[in-house]
Amino acid sequence: MGVLSLLRGHQRDPSRATLVARGVVALTVLTLVVAGLVLAGNGSFSDRVAATVVLDDAGGSLVPGADVKYRGVVVGKVAALGEGDGGAERDGSVEVAVDLAPDLAADVPADATARVLPASVFGTSFIDLVSAGDGARGLEDGHRIPQDRRSQTLEIQAVLDGLDRVVGDLGPARLATALEGLATALDGNGQRLGRTIVTLHRYLARLNPSMPLVRRNLQLLATNLEGFAAYAPDLLDATDDALIAARTIVEHEGRFAALVRSGGSAFARSARLLNANERGLVDMLVRTAVVVDALYDGRRDLVDSLLSTLDLAAGFDEALSHGRYLRIAGDLQLAEEPGYGRGGCPSYSGHRGRGC
Questions:
Q1: Total domain count, the chain
Q2: CA 356 → CA 128, 337, 338, 339, distances in Å?
Q3: How confident is the model over 27-74, as pLDDT tens digits?
Q4: 3-state class percentages of the chain: helix first, strand second, coil last, to nearest 5
Q5: Residues 32 and 110 in one domain
Q6: Domain presence at residue 295
């Protein structure tokens, strides 16, 4: 019996075999139709531009099928995060395969960079493509899109990663409790919260121009704290020494008070002495000023005399270096030597010099 004959049947009431065959065919056709619709919805039958987004960290909420947007328009989908948990890692980075629509990818600049943003606070993330708009337009198949390295993007990514870790650590039960408490606290306080947000926005608008200076101050503070941490043991030792000194003062408080009183009496007597001899002290200061002025005027002669004194001291030390007697080297002449005349002319074997 053929399949068509089995499906068609020749009896008024089809047999059980005919019904089974018809059911199998119907289920097969329905399965093929549903599979075709799913594949068509995923873009399996449409052209696509395969690109790779290179990220430092894809986060925990970026999953296959997430949107890829450019200026708020969905231009593609995330195809895969690679092999392993969290994506395929290469030199510490994560490579995310994305499929882009060809007509939309043609409008994306070639110098576009990527960043991961949340679709909602607790929802999945999506990849946002950003560009300065100066490069040529059009992404080709196999294009590699680097991560956006601007400071604002890195700060947002750090906040989102921290929020993702907090949500993961809280767990569903504690997260639900925290959200319920937050909702209860905010219930009926919308206007007050709005005013607070507006005020905060004003403060931040004033603070943003000074953020480079704030960052610099924080860096200097970190450097100072590192130095403080390095010298903390010495500072603690100094504090211990100060505590010992303080305990000693407390233990000998009476003697310290007597010393202070004695010092006060000594200062009072010194004041009386200065008051009694005020005129003499003024005259002494005037004369001292005259002497200092004279020494300043003759400072060069004073220096020369000091150098001469040092030379004399060096010679005197050498003279006394031979014991307890003073050694003096000099010539002693008892009589005056006769002058040289014609009689003193030299003569050799009866020959005298010229002029003799």
A1: 2
A2: 126, 21, 17, 15
A3: 888 888 888 777 666 655 556 788 888 887 766 677 888 888 888 888
A4: 55, 15, 30
A5: no
A6: no
